[in-house]
Amino acid sequence: MKAAVVYTYGSKIEVVDLELGGVGPNDIRVKIKASGLCHSDVSVQTGSLPFPLPMVLGHEGAGIVTEVGSNVSLTKVGDHVVLSALIHCGNCDNCIKGRPNLCLWGLNTIFGGKNPDGSLRLKDAQGKEVYQFASIGTLAEELICHEKHAVPIPKDVSFEAACLTGCGVLTGMSAVFNRAKVEAGRSVVVIGCGGVGLNVIQSAAAANAGSIIAVDLHQEKLDLAVQFGATAVVNSSKIKDLPATIMEMTGGLGADYVFEVVGVPELVRQGWDSLKIDGTLVVIGVHPSNSESSLPAGQFSTSEKTLMSCLYGTSRPTKDIPLAIHMYQQGKIKLDELITHRFALEDINDAVAKMNSGKDGRGIVVFK
Ligand SMILES: [Zn+2]
Ligand SMILES: [Zn+2]
Hints:
This protein has 368 residues and is α/β, with parallel strands linked by helices. 26% of the residues lie in helices and 26% in strands. The chain has helices spanning 39-46, 93-96, 104-112, 159-163, 168-180, 197-206, 219-227, 242-249, 265-273, 317-329, 348-356, and strands at 2-6, 14-20, 27-36, 55-56, 60-68, 80-84, 122-124, 129-132, 142-146, 150-152, 187-191, 211-216, 232-235, 255-260, 275-283, 306-309, 339-343, 362-366. The longest helix has 13 residues, at 168-180. The protein starts with a strand and ends with a strand. The structure holds zinc ion (ZN) (2 copies).
């Protein structure tokens, strides 16, 4: 089977033939039908998110279960599933208190790129073992992963729409509903309107936010943002001072919530300065591991502003993926419109170039 593999940081992604190993007792085998491409995939390629190589990219996918291990109980052969990076044990303190995104067993699995049993499931033609991004690696025709990566979905939902709920939709939606808990009527600013930011916008709209200001460098994304519920837009390539602009647009008060969805350290400060007293800054963007942001410490004692770190949207995939699918089926959120480009696996480097141009919503790879 073919898969998109990074062999060396900074070089092009290679589409190569890989051999799949056997299905372990807790594993499932999935034929992938569609997979999104996310900025984190590109961060692995460039090395700004350091992972062991060679590695199959892709961490949001949808497909059909074709084989299950002897202990598998969550899915059966023929099920349609969404695969999410987030895997969790269900028993630890973080899982029990409803924060499975912080499950250490899960995070160690995700960052190790191996099956939770510690072994690898893939080999290339030279016999070299290959890692799977987030222990799934969805930019592949097939994969084997632990059953807990998979969430069953109704069969009448398209794989193309469904695959997006594995990362981008899950992260954006959950950041609004689970982390910030946006209140009706409040003002929201979203900095960065790509595959995650658009979902913050449409979820804030679903939460009846009073105003939603979308901020991006690219007009194409701002046009999309309006389709997803933004009530005003700011093209940050055309202004000098984002906080001053936001202050002006919010009657001198600032915003109740600012979501930083880019991963640029300076934007943390700009987001903070755009907040109303008592406002909340939610940092969703994945920042380079060696970067730092600074904030005016004096304000901590007087402004009652809140700074929230937000890993994977503070999501609970087994609850929130079905919720996203349900809201899509009810017309409360858009999924099809998020897809701005479709690629074949062979054209994965074109998909990366399109993403790096900063102009698309979500590019997906579609499999036959
Ligand atoms: Zn992602
Ligand atoms: Zn756990």
